[in-house]
Amino acid sequence: MNAQSSALLRDVTTSLPRNPFLAGRAADQEANAVLAAAPAELFRRLLADQESEVGLLVARRVLAGFLTGEYEATGPDDLLDADAIADYVLGARAGVERTFAGLWDRDAKIRDAVLRQRAPLALLGACWLDTVSQAATQPAVIVNRLFGQYFLLQGEGTAARGVAERRRRALVGQGVHLPQIAAADFLKQAGARPLTALHGAFHLALSRLPAAFLPEVVGVHYAVHALGVDDLLLGTDPLLPEEQVRPVLAEYLKLTAQAPSGAEDRRRLLAAVRLVVRLEQEHAALLTELAEWYAGLSLDAKVAAIVARHAPLAGRQHRSVRMGDRRLSEWLDDEKLDVAAFVAEFRNSRQMRPSQDGSCRFLKAIKFGGPMFGIFDESEAATFTAWAEAIAAGEPADLDFRLNTAGDQAADRWADVLARTEPADMVIAEEADSTLDDRQFFYRLVNFECFPHILPMARERAEAGLAEAELLFTHGAGGRLTNAEYFDYTPDALMKRVEEIYWDKLVNPYRPLIEIPDRDEVIFGQTTFALGSLIDGSWAHRISNLGRQHRRSDSMLFAIYADEMGRGDVAKNHITLINQVLASMDIRLPHIRDKEFMDQDDLPDELYGFSIHQVCLSLFPDTLYNEILGYNLGIEMFGLGEMRLHEIQKLRCHNLDISYEQAHLSIDNFSAGHARQSVDIIVAYLDDVWRNSGDDAVQHAWRRIWRGYASFAYFVEHALVKRVRAELEELSDAVDLVI
């Protein structure tokens, strides 16, 4: 294809068509409950819930509050080019640096508290890019530029090299040890303030709806990296410095100059930039306030903070203990515990009265062998020891202290806005329309960010397809290109089966075609595969979302997806390649995300089921993870051997583009390519399952993986499935006659 033709195919999308946000009533009510909960619960729900309608509704409401609420960020609205935006953001960065000046001239405990407080935001990485690459957005130029940088930030397929793990190692290097961000106690261990959780909720919400909020993604991506708050705090070199993100910003602004929605897209981008500046300034103020609070803590105040942390679980353990005129359980069970009054009473209690050996009852109780040993960590025990020594020395009490409220005023304002802001585009429906035909259903699946109510139907469709595919567990050996017959797993057994498929079904049967079909027949044959090719890689597009990447197989599968998308190089992107092939046949389709695609008449209706199954699987990367691994094996092996070679021969004969077929024949090779990598992914995953749960769990996980493979084979082996169903129907009829 010549350069002029390639230019005509260039996807210069800067924002997706605006659709109403269609939500179910029950899910909307549950989303309201999540938003009414504490900020920490909002953060955890957005992080953990990657598959439900409720999660998307919560994300939409959070974005409405931060982006269009009454508390919208202010700032210049006349920044017309990338350099002007950069001057504004870098000026804000200088202000943040001044805010942090002298922050580290405090003791190590203050530094620890500040770094812990920032960790929930630092360890989000660039989560807003997690699913910016998807069927609805590919192969847009700006999406590929963003994905190229995301691939870098993800460690280029090795999570340990990615930005989140680099920051985790930097935290450890400074003595800050935290569980994984998805751990149930992560926010507690970080001591996250409500404002920190709310800021994190904004980034997580954007990560759930990046296609619908593409201008905001570009603005957030630039502003966060240009401000570089986390590298300032950690003293690390940025993995993606400002001078590398500014060209992406500039290219996006250039694209908007030609877009019908360009003026609105630029407005949305600039609003997102201003918001990030405000949020980072807000959080810098929180960290400074936190440091000042820690610096001003007296020993009595430090004891009060420890008491406040442990009080909710402590009262019932001390029913027989009295302190002053009250039982200790009465003190600690009080929801409105006056911590200052408690500390004053505790100071004068017999538990803290110095004994002849210089200790006291309380210190003896928390030491090894005492009834409270293990309740307090080493740092807390040291604080109590210093406090007891101060009491014994006759130092006066300092009870004029306040509890930690760093950032709470700003948090209260944001919480109020989130509670009162309704997305203008939200439409509440009783339930999803079960009468949708395949074209309508596919359209909503591709645009699922705007149609979250489709997710329950997608789950049902995926499960039904997987269940039907188990037919091939006993009849799969007769497949022409696959063999989905079930077998018990061992690494050797898997490799043996895959090699048999490769040689016996894909390679050895190949003979060059003696007669080439005419041009129309070749083109029709290509159209039967085209819809699946237009969503190439989509089965794995959500596999590297934040909160995952905890298994070796996650990074390995993400690397395959990155290859399918050209690692950010739009010319190597497989969606670009299939569009080139179709263009060489004079087939130019609307994008699959567009309503007009539902009316196209170039691709046959009867093959929508294959693509629908693939997209349905992709929407459940947690609960259908095993099945995705098996499906991935099937589709990557499909790129090899006889079928591809014949297609290349036919296309060449009619001077049609072979780039898509050629790319798969090469990249999917069985020596070291995607086909072999797909086997290695399954082995690595099941090895982890075995280490954690043993042999029985491996076989259970394997059965699910293999039904994922069978679900691919089910759509490929039309003749086999038809024959087997006919045979089973005849057998059933015969049994009925006998009965």
Notes on the protein architecture:
- The chain has 739 residues and is an all-alpha fold.
- It has 3 domains: 79-296 and 411-419, Heme Oxygenase, Chain A; 299-392, no CATH class; 509-706, Heme Oxygenase, Chain A (Up-down Bundle).
- It contains 34 helices and 4 strands.
- The protein has helices spanning 3-9, 25-36, 39-48, 53-68, 82-100, 108-122, 141-153, 163-173, 186-190, 194-208, 214-227, 229-234, 242-256, 262-295, 299-314, 328-333, 339-347, 361-366, 378-392, 408-420, 438-446, 455-469, 472-475, 491-507, 519-533, 552-564, 574-584, 608-618, 625-637, 642-653, 659-667, 674-693, 695-716, 718-738, and strands at 21-24, 322-323, 326-327, 426-429.
- The strands form 2 sheets. Strands 1-4 form a two-stranded parallel ribbon. A two-stranded antiparallel ribbon has the order 2-3.
- A hairpin with a 2-residue loop joins strand 2 (322-323) and strand 3 (326-327).
- Helix 2 crosses helix 4 and helix 6 packs antiparallel against helix 8 (163-173).
- It is globular and about 105 Å long.
- The relative contact order is 0.11.
- Residues 1-5 have low confidence and may be disordered.
Q: What tags apply to this protein structure?
A:
two-stranded antiparallel sheet; Heme Oxygenase, Chain A; 61% helix; 34 helices; mainly alpha; 3 domains; two-stranded parallel sheet; disordered N terminus; 4 strands
